[in-house]
Amino acid sequence: MKRIMPLLGALVALCSPGIARSAPLPYAAMHFRSIGPAIAGGRVPAVAGSARHPNLYYIGTAGGGVWKSVNGGATWRDVFADEPVASIGAIAIDPRNAKIVWVGTGESNPRNDVIRGDGLYKSVDGGKSWKNVGLRRSGHIAAI
Hints:
By secondary structure, the protein is mainly β. It has one helix and eight strands. The chain has one helix at residues 4-15, and strands at residues 46-49, 57-60, 66-69, 77-78, 88-93, 101-105, 120-123, 131-134. The strands form two sheets. A four-stranded antiparallel beta sheet has the order 1-2-3-4, with no helix packed on it. The protein has a four-stranded antiparallel beta sheet with strand order 5-6-7-8, with no helix packed on it. A hairpin with a 5-residue loop joins strand 2 and strand 3 (66-69). The chain is globular and about 65 Å long. The two termini are 39 Å apart. The model is unreliable at 1-8 (pLDDT under 50).
């Protein structure tokens, strides 16, 4: 990346005659960083956010359950660790009440390590507790 940025800057300067050659590019100081695993088990097939609470997010992982952030993704907390299934295919937050969250278990991307789920879960307290509310034999829920 360090080699590409100077080349990108030179290309922009050559292609943009109105830009002063001494002006730094706005993204020249940015660098790539790892934000998570890139192996098969690091997939995030489900993400949900709240329009009423812009810093509230839930993610559902292929094999690691459901995680919640209340600060726009700066930190995450596991909120599904006590449930008997860890494969998540879908998440939805009630648009009228952000404490109501629906989770469909069983990632639906066909691969060598897909894990079946055991139905649909609902939380009425923002992920503190969960109840399986049905569809136990569905195996994979990809949308809610």
